[in-house]
Structure formats: structure tokens, C-alpha cells
Design a protein that fits this description.
By secondary structure, the protein is α/β, with parallel strands linked by helices. It is about 50% helix and about 15% strand. It has a seven-stranded mixed beta sheet with strand order 3-2-1-4-8-6-9, sandwiched between helices.
Length: about 375
């Protein structure tokens, strides 16, 4: 066996071993059982922060789902953080404030408050928060009416300083289903890593933390110059301070739903934003894992191309892709079962080429060029 073949197989088995670890981690997360609905938690209160930039089309649905929560009216407030929107986002929010007068909905506008960027806006929202628990979500997200009550019960039981709760991409087209499949895997990996006390990723679309923890770790003070990472860097800092009080919430009522990207251009810009922070992690093992996954996918692409010209590479490519698909199907199977979307598992073979190419291209592209996100050019 040549050294090259051995390296390729080691990359494949290393990738599979990592996926198997996450599978075990996901299975170890206990399913949180809520109490009867009539036993609403009145001892927990929340400030819900909703950063928004150019979300005119989505933000009313988000607010509608927040004011519909089965939760005590005086036990939560909603702060919309309008980050220099150039569309009608502010107008829609003000109409919602007038419509839902019985709810406490506050608009923080960048033009009048003087903040710039998502992180500064969130930090201001935390500072203005009336309650000790901060629930962070995105302006294009919706949720069921028991979302906040489920978070409250979990927060109370675990005395958590941070909670990462599940996010799911709704999907109709094949392109959207591909994204939904991939993102479900990322959510599951993030939850599994937290359960294994080695957190790597989370999503600000459904994140809860205490105001105390945010202040104690300095918020975003040491990474506010980075466009991305308002979720993951905060996760790492709070976990470092409270390793036993950071949890993933596995309960269907805690899911928030959002839409996938509508075009390849939007998808690539989003992924470049996510990957751009890959070399900035304090925990270098996360960067090492990303580098290992990158070279595994690169070897897959190389061997797939070589197989067209040199038949002896066909078996190597088939072995690698077989190992990859088997491991991913095992993990995705249990995650999709939680989301009640096991049908998406059928897309695992179809998504392989897309996944390999985008890992390779975005991995380099995100770290060598600026990118555009919501009409801003970022690094």
C-alpha cells in the first residue's frame, strides 16, 4: 500500500471516527420533558433580542410568533435591534409595536442609538434588558407557542448560564432541502459537542444566556472586530467560565424555524461569513478538525478526478466516499428523526458532490477575500 493511499484512508477513517463521536454525543443528550402546560414557569423572565438588518419581508412573522408565546405577559419583553436597515424594516416594527400594545416591544435603532454592526447592537440590547435571561434569535425566525415556556423550564431546572436550542431550515425545493440536511447536521454536531464538554459551534438564531454571564466574560469585547462569531465565540467564553452550566436543549417545542438561502450566491456569502472565523478560535482543536475535514474532502475530489484517467484510483475513491456516506447517514439519521424529517436522509448520496466542492472552495475563499452580507462588505 502506497503512502498516498494510506494517508487517504487514514483521513477517511479519521473523519468517520469524528462523526461517530458526535453520534455518541447526540445520543447522550437527554430528551428534556416539560411539565404540564398549565404549570407555566413564572420564576423565569426573558428579554428577547432580535437583531435585524433588511428583514422587511420576514420580521412581522417573527414578532407574531413571539407575541403568541404561551407565557406570562409581564415576564418577557422584545427588543428589536435595527442595524441600519435600508428597506422598510423599521416601519414594519413600528406598526407591530402599535398593533401589540399590550406587549413590551422596544425598537433600538442604529441611526439614533449610534451602534454599528450586529455585535454592538446585541451588546446594547443586553445593557438595556430589563430581565436577567437573554434569548437571542434572528429576525427571519419563527417558533411555536411553547418555545419560551420550554426554555424557561429548562433554564430553571439546569440553572443554565447558556442554552443552545435547535434550529431547522424549512425547505421546499431540492436546493433548499440540501441546505436543510446540511444545517440539521451542523445543529446536531453543535449539540453533541456541548454534551461531550467540548463545544465547537452554535447558532444565534436560538441562543439563551444570562446577562450576568455575558458581562462576566466581557461580551464581544475581544472579537468585535470580526464580522461573524457573535454566537460561537460567546459560547466558548461562557463555557470556559461555566463548564457545567452550558447545555443543549433537545425538545421539539424549543425549535425555531428559518428559511434557507434562496440562491447559490446567498449561500456562498453566508458560508464564507461562517468559515471566515475558522482560524480565529482560541481552542485550536476546532481549527485542526476543520483543516482535517478540508484535506479529507480535497483528497476525495482529487481521487474522483484521477479515477477518470487512472482506473486504480476508482476503488480508493469508492472506499473513501462509502466511509463518508455511511458515517454521515448514521449521524444524520438520528438528528433528522428528532426534527421529524427523516425523509431528507435520502438526499445523502445526492448531496456529496455539492458538499465536497463547497467545503474546498469556501474553505479557501472565505479566508482570502472580503465578502458581502446584507449589502455590507465584510472581512
Amino acid at each position: 500500500m502506497s503512502a498516498y493511499i494510506l494517508i487517504c484512508l487514514l483521513l477517511a477513517f479519521g473523519y468517520a471516527a469524528l462523526i461517530l463521536i458526535y453520534f455518541v454525543g447526540w445520543m447522550l443528550i437527554p430528551h428534556f420533558k416539560t411539565r404540564q402546560r398549565k404549570e407555566l414557569v413564572q420564576t423565569e423572565s426573558f428579554t428577547i433580542l432580535v437583531p435585524a438588518r433588511n428583514e422587511e419581508a420576514q420580521i412581522k412573522a417573527c414578532i407574531d410568533s413571539l407575541v403568541s408565546q404561551d407565557f406570562a405577559l409581564g415576564a418577557f419583553e422584545i427588543i428589536i435591534i435595527n442595524d441600519h436597515s435600508t428597506d422598510g424594516t423599521e416601519t414594519v416594527v413600528r406598526k407591530c409595536i402599535a398593533l401589540y400594545k399590550e406587549h413590551k416591544i422596544i425598537l433600538l435603532d442604529a441611526a439614533s442609538e449610534g451602534f454599528s454592526g450586529k455585535k454592538e447592537g446585541i451588546a446594547l440590547g443586553v445593557d438595556r434588558a430589563s430581565f436577567s435571561n437573554i434569548a437571542l434569535t434572528d429576525a427571519d425566525c419563527t417558533r411555536g407557542k411553547y418555545w419560551l415556556n420550554t426554555l424557561a423550564q429548562f433554564r430553571k431546572e439546569k440553572q443554565a448560564q447558556m442554552i443552545y436550542a435547535p434550529v431547522f431550515f424549512t425547505a421546499n425545493t431540492l436546493f433548499e432541502r440540501f441546505q436543510s440536511l446540511e444545517f440539521a447536521g451542523l445543529v446536531g454536531i453543535g449539540g453533541a459537542a456541548i454534551q461531550l464538554k467540548n463545544p465547537n459551534m452554535c447558532s444565534a438564531a436560538n441562543l439563551v444566556f444570562t446577562k450576568q454571564a455575558f458581562i462576566e466574560v466581557g461580551g464581544y469585547a475581544d472579537n468585535k472586530h470580526l464580522a461573524s462569531g457573535d454566537d460561537e465565540f460567546l459560547l466558548h467564553k461562557i463555557f470556559k467560565r461555566y463548564p457545567q452550566q452550558v447545555h443543549f436543549l433537545k425538545n421539539a417545542d424549543a425549535i425555531v424555524y428559518t428559511s434557507p438561502n434562496a440562491s447559490v450566491e446567498q449561500l456562498t456569502q453566508q458560508r464564507r461569513r461562517w468559515v471566515s472565523k475558522s482560524t480565529k478560535y482560541e481552542n485550536r482543536y476546532i481549527t485542526a478538525i476543520l483543516v482535517g475535514a478540508y484535506f479529507f474532502n480535497l483528497s476525495l475530489l482529487m481521487n474522483g478526478i484521477l479515477a477518470f484517467f487512472i482506473p486504480s484510483f476508482t476503488n480508493l475513491f469508492l472506499q473513501q466516499i462509502g466511509i463518508k456516506m455511511a458515517a454521515e447517514a448514521l449521524l444524520l439519521g438520528v438528528i433528522l428523526r428528532f426534527f421529524k424529517r427523516s425523509d431528507l436522509l435520502l438526499l445523502v448520496p445526492l448531496v456529496q458532490l455539492f458538499h465536497i466542492l463547497y467545503v474546498i472552495i469556501i474553505g479557501v475563499w472565505a479566508n482570502v477575500q472580503t465578502y458581502t452580507w446584507k449589502e455590507r462588505e465584510l472581512k
